[in-house]
């Protein structure tokens, strides 16, 4: 089963204008699947394909290829990274530079996967800089419950000034790796990417 919906347009978003009046946007897709080619990752690829075909500058980051460590902070919050030397700051910098951010996760225990939550925690140190973004969320689940993960994403963007939710893709009843192929939700991800 697939659920697709769009939310209201983001106001005040600045984007470059290309040929034929297209508002060319910088699109960052963050795939947190622990399995490359997993169902949520495949939906990311379709979103990416749609965005590129529409003329946008789009990139997918696969967190499983990166070294992303847990957030560490001092008790008085004066130092929020405590000398962590990993790939998280590079991802955060890409988020700051993007116009559109897509976050994708498989659902485990009715929630987003640990890889995504760890990455979101690492944004904490620069959350005030991740502003005026358009967000899309992709979730896949063997069952039907994506509510906790969606709530987690929505709570996260509440702390990012001027950022708006623009769309959600929920692929449910999809369990085995690759079983999303041929499902309507694949086309939905592609179309959503085309229409960012």
UniProtKB/TrEMBL annotation:
Species: Phocaeicola dorei
- The NADPH-dependent FMN reductase-like domain sits at 26-146
| Protein name, as recorded | NAD(P)H-dependent oxidoreductase
SUPFAM superfamilies recorded for this chain? Flavoproteins (SSF52218)
One molecular function GO term is: oxidoreductase activity
- What are the entry keywords? Flavoprotein, FMN
Pfam families, per this entry? FMN_red
Q: Which PANTHER family match?
A: NAD(P)H-DEPENDENT FMN-CONTAINING OXIDOREDUCTASE YWQN-RELATED
Tell me yes or no: is Flavoprotein among this UniProt entry's keywords: yes
Q: Which residues form the signal peptide?
A: none
Please name the InterPro entries in this protein's record.
Flavoprotein-like_sf (IPR029039), FMN_Rdtase-like_dom (IPR005025), ISF_SsuE-like (IPR051796)
């Amino acid at each position: 089963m697939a659920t697709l919906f769009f939310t209201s347009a983001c106001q005040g978003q600045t984007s470059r204008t290309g040929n034929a009046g297209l508002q060319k946007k910088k699109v960052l897709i963050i795939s947190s699947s622990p399995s490359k080619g997993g169902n949520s990752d495949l939906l990311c690829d379709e979103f990416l394909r749609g965005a590129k075909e529409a003329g946008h500058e789009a990139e997918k980051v696969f967190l499983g290829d990166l070294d992303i460590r847990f957030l560490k902070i001092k008790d008085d919050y004066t130092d929020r990274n405590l000398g962590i030397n990993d790939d998280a700051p590079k991802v955060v910098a890409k988020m700051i530079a993007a116009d559109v951010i897509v976050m994708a996760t498989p659902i485990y225990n009715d929630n987003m996967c640990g890889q995504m939550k760890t990455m979101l925690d690492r944004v904490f140190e620069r959350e005030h800089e991740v502003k005026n973004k358009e967000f899309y969320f992709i979730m896949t689940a063997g069952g039907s419950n994506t509510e906790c993960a969606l709530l987690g994403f929505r709570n996260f963007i509440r702390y990012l000034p001027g950022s708006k939710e623009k769309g959600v893709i929920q692929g449910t009843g999809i369990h085995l790796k690759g079983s999303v192929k041929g499902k309507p939700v694949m086309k939905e991800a592609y179309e959503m990417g085309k229409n960012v």
